[in-house]
Amino acid sequence: MALDLATYLVFFLILALNYAVLCLGLNLQWGFTGLFNVGVAGFFAIGAYTSAILTGPPRPEAVGGFDLPVLIGWLGGTLAAGVAALGVGWATLRLRHDYLAITTFGIAVTIQLVALNEEWLTGGAFGIEAIPRPLAAWFTSPTQYNLFYLGLTLALVALVFWGLERLVRGPWGRLLRAIREDEVAAASLGKDVRTQRLIAFALGSAIMGLAGAHFATFMGFIAPESFLPVVTFQVWAMLILGGSGNNRGAVLGAILVWGLWSVAGVTVKALLPPDLQVRGAALQVVLIGVVLAGVLLIRPRGLMGEERAISPHTQATATASTAPSSTPASGGPDAR
Amino acid sequence: MMDLVWLTLPQVIANGLLQGSAIALGAIGLTLTYSILRFANFTHGETISWGGYFTLTALAALTPWIGGIGKWGGLTFGWGLVVALGVGVVGASLLALALDRLLFATLRRHGSAITLVIASFGASLALRNLIVFVYGPESVQFTRELVIADRWLGGLVRVTPDQLAVLGLSAALAVGLTVFLRFTTTGRAMRATAENPALAQITGIDTAHVVRTVWVLGAVLATLAGVFIGITAQLRPELGFDLLLPLFAAAILGGIGSVPGAMLGGLIVGLAESAAVEYLHAGYRNAVGFLVLIAILVIRPTGLFAARG
Amino acid sequence: MLALQGLVAGYEPGLPIVRGASLQVADREILTLLGPNGAGKSTLVKAIAGLVPITAGQVHLSGRDITGLGAHRLARAGLGFVPQTENVFTTLSIAENLALAGFFLPSHHQRRRVAAMYALFPDLAERRHTDAGRLSGGQRQMLAIARALIPEPRVVMLDEPSAGLSPKLVQVVFQKLVEIRAQGVTLVIVEQNAKAALAIADRGIVLVEGAPRFVGPAQDLASNPEVARLYLGRRETA
């Protein structure tokens, strides 16, 4: 019993930390740069499929299955998601926030349709099977292997976390926050706002791609239903709960929301008869939705909030700039 | 091959207009709420679904009194549906007002517009899954009656009387709403609030009341869209979700705030979907709205019409 | 007519911009609010108009307490406000702007008021079906003033009516304001253009750091060297 629980806990942590990587990617985009991405599931899918195609065994009915090392797959997945985001971002980042939200949502829907329809590439509804796991031959039992994979996952999260912390605490991070707070002011300082936003968007999406590759390798099997919009929804709930603009908050939020999700799932399974399980599972989403709405209403900064958030200084300037200045519309015609 | 295209084209256009009129009804509601509430409201799709399901529930519950869906001539519905629709409209309006009261009103006061979008995205997923929980994942129909499609243009086009009725009603609604916005005080107050809420208040307009009015109006249009789709096709929990991209595409294509624009935008998206399904790939139907959206955002982000009632 | 007592107002709690303003505006008076940039002139009138939260103090209009009444109630209560910018509905025609302005009046009364405004501003009558967004700066300002006057307010507050207008147009607009006062309307005018405002005003108030610093008859203020040097002079050199 205790062993079962430990096995489950390892499995749970691997997936929770997988979400943590997604959440860190979204935090770079939303928390630090203010880019509203509702297409998380799409970039997650690109990473997963790219890695699966690169590392998987040859498939007679479809292209790909290059049997490459896992590391190549992960790099490929990261790169593919990043490149896709560059294209998408180039077309949409100049748009208003809410248009960016709608278009990224559309991208995720479209990518899911490609996964479903392009059988020659993605295996269609059946997906891709037998995706190899690294060093699988070294371990005798699945539990042992999962323990090893958890270590690998922890190292991955630590690496992404450390890299992002260095980035956002450096000059580039300050520039991103400046762009987020006041795009016009940042542009007037001579900063190429659009390029910086594009880089942040692509980097964040690349991290989501990496999470996808990690997910595909761990599961050993992927199909379109792993990349539904509910993934995007979960990651947003994680980031908002943990506290956007705070990388530790992103990781904490991922673990908490995934915990809540899993407990709700187990409860539904235990309590409801099999024919009502689909309906019951829908309640998981409702629950997370209520949590998301509650956090937005009661504690919009999330559990951790943003570190060195809007300092009292910035807040004062922000107020001054929204205050109705008595400045005339122009010094032109009415100046004598 | 060309011959084949010419032979199928009339039916493709007919299907496109039918699908487009449902999209248009949803898009009109969306464009009105978008212009006054000032955020991309992802829950509008779910209001369409819920409006349809509410009406269906009312129909079942009221059958002992209204005797079922009714029958008007060649149509599969009659007074029964009208009564049930009234209940559905009330249900969807209360749902929209409750969402505003519990969630969006507070966020409007304290948060930014983008917080509202996050909240609406979350709420839409929760609402959709609530449908799955309450009604189950399977699709449901208003009536089991089989209808024979009438043949037009020497048999090239087959359209059911229900479909024709829905098309006509949608067009009438769009015209009626345009007149309402142009010539009534409430309509002008809505346009004024959409353009400049602060000035609207100074002018004496209770903008909070306008906001409630637009939620109700949006819910009424959404319910009609849901029921029209339910009559001509079927209700599914994903109905509203699948409509989101076409709705946004139509609303932005027509210019946010423009009712005729949303109507035309809806028809264009419907025609594009119908053509894509027939000539390209049926599996990508849901991506067509997205492609239209990208095209319009890259070429002319303000839409085809300026935001003018 | 309009009385303020210890008014404190601002956008953020704890960050007041108007800090304890008390003043009385007499019936049929033209009062101008002057002061350096950031003194809180605009915030003061916006607070009275119900657009900025009031945290302390009171506003009375004709003896009635209208503090925190809500912007949409004030037009009915007899208080008009002309904001500095975005003061007309650009997507509505002139006629629609005016029709909306008094929508709560009985319709025959409303029509009479619109006719009166067309008489006061003949330019507007000629272009009544034009979208307000296509008007020139001067015409737009006239429409904004007409809009505020439709419900027959007892007091109209104007936030920088001269902003963005040529000196010649400023004269035209200010002359209209004198006519409007002659019809019995009390005016409160926030102005950067102190010279033009003091020329038509009965009294002036110099607001500094959110509170009145100098109050006096318009001529006295215009000739007060300290006031001129400290607070009015910068427009001359701008």
- Give the largest interface: A-B, 42 and 46 residues
Backbone CA Rg of chain A: 22 Å
First-to-last CA distance of chain A: 88 Å
Number of helices of chain A: 13
Radius of gyration of chain B using CA atoms only: 19 Å
What is the N-to-C order of secondary-structure elements of chain A (H for helix, E for strand)? Answer: HHHHHHHHHHHHH
Uncertain regions of chain A: pLDDT < 50 for 5+ in a row?
A: 309-336
The oligomeric state of the chains shown is: heterotrimer
Give the CA-CA distance, first to last residue of chain B.
44 Å
Order of helices and strands of chain B: HHHHEEHHHHHHH
- Low-confidence residue ranges of chain B: none
Helical content of chain B (DSSP H or I, runs of 4+): over 70%
Q: Topology, please?
A:
The complex is a heterotrimer of chains A (336), B (309) and C (238).
Chain A: H1 2-32, H2 40-55, H3 70-92, H4 97-117, H5 119-122, H6 142-169, H7 171-181, H8 183-188, H9 193-219, H10 229-242, H11 247-271, H12 277-298, H13 312-322
Chain B: H1 2-37, H2 43-66, H3 79-110, H4 113-135, E1 150-152, E2 157-159, H5 161-183, H6 185-195, H7 197-202, H8 207-232, H9 239-254, H10 259-280, H11 285-299
Antiparallel strand pairs in B: 1-2
Helix pairs in contact in B: 1-5, 1-8, 1-9, 1-10, 2-3, 2-4, 2-8, 2-9, 3-4, 3-8, 5-6, 6-8, 9-10, 9-11, 10-11
Chain C: E1 2-9, E2 18-25, E3 30-34, H1 41-48, E4 54-61, E5 64-65, H2 71-77, E6 79-82, H3 94-101, H4 107-120, H5 122-126, H6 137-149, E7 155-159, H7 167-182, E8 186-190, H8 194-200, E9 203-208, E10 211-217, H9 218-223, H10 225-237
Parallel strand pairs in C: 3-8, 3-9, 6-7, 7-8
Antiparallel strand pairs in C: 1-2, 1-4, 4-5, 9-10
Helix pairs in contact in C: 3-6
